[in-house]
Amino acid sequence: VVVEYATSDDSESIEIYPFLVDLSRTCNDVKFLLVMGDESEKTKELCKREKVDKVPHFTFYKSKEKIHEEEAIGPDTLVGDVLYYGDNHSAVVQLHNREDVEKLIEDHKVDHKLIVLDVGLKHCGPCVKVYPTVIKLSRQMSDTVVFARMNGDENDSCMQFLKDMEVIQVPTFLFIRDGKIDGRYVGSGKGELIGEILRYQGVRVTY
Questions:
Q1: Is residue 206 part of a domain?
Q2: How far apart are the C-alpha atoms of 138 and 90, rounded to whole Å?
Q3: 139 and 196 fall within a common domain
Q4: Is the Cα torsion angle 158, 184, 101, 190 positive or negative in sign?
Q5: CATH code of residue 38
Q6: In which domain of life is the source organism classified (predicted)?
Q7: Measuring CA to CA, which residue among 85, 90, 78, 66 is closest to residue 22?
Q8: What's the confidence (pLDDT) of residue 170?
Q9: pLDDT by residue (tens digit) across 139-163?
Q10: Which residues contact 56 (CB under 8 A, 6 or more apart)?
Q11: CA 49 – CA 61 distance, rounded (Å)
């Protein structure tokens, strides 16, 4: 659930509203709510209770838990946030523990597909920034590459996996084939990520 707090006279709220409408049409598993802070005394009180100081203010909820907040952001950041925190429908496999990782690796030992595992954290700006690229690549490369992601701070199992993989910075992309980790890329550069994926696919890449 994404809740936007806005006011009727705020230019940034007005500017970002069409993008919110478009997202509500394309992201079917995300619910969008709009609270106009200047509509009534009740909405003013709600904004005060939620400590909304600047609009547009976006609050993200998952399983009734507040997982993220942003304020005074532009359309690109909003789209990235919605895709990152609300993605349950793309080709990117969502991993929630070590067992999920092991099963994914085992499943693709037969087809020899390259697994690109995006390891990040819930409140990681660079992780959010690069995720739309991950989704796009997962669609374009579905014949040869499997994309997956794990948030290390989701639970103890995920955090232990990060430690075992010696992940120090996020996002870190692990490249796995035939059950073995062939390499990794640390960073959120779109071009560099694509280049590394192609390199592990056997394509000669020069930077």
A1: no
A2: 8
A3: yes
A4: positive
A5: 3.40.30.10
A6: Eukaryota
A7: 78
A8: 96
A9: 899 999 999 999 999 999 999 999 9
A10: 4, 5, 6, 10, 12, 13, 16, 71, 72, 73
A11: 16
8 A C-beta contact, residue 91 and residue 142: yes
128 and 153: one domain?
yes
When pLDDT is cut at 50, 70 and 90, the band that residue 207 belongs to is low
Among 86, 119, 146, identify where a domain stops. Answer: 86
Give yes or no: 158 in active site: no
Confidence of residue 52 (pLDDT cuts 50, 70, 90): very high
The answer for 114, left when phi > 0, alpha when psi is -120 to 50, beta otherwise, is beta
> Among the three residues 86, 116, 144, which one is the final residue of a domain in this structure?
86
Same domain, 72 and 97: no
Mean pLDDT (the chain) is 91
Count of CB atoms situated within 10 Å of the CB of 139: 11
C-alpha angle 206-142-117 in degrees, rounded to nearest 5: 70
Reply yes or no on whether 27 is catalytic. Answer: no
pLDDT at position 73 over 60: yes
Domain residues for the domain of 121 are 92-201
Give Cβ neighbours of residue 38 (< 8 Å, ≥ 6 apart). Answer: 7, 8, 9, 44
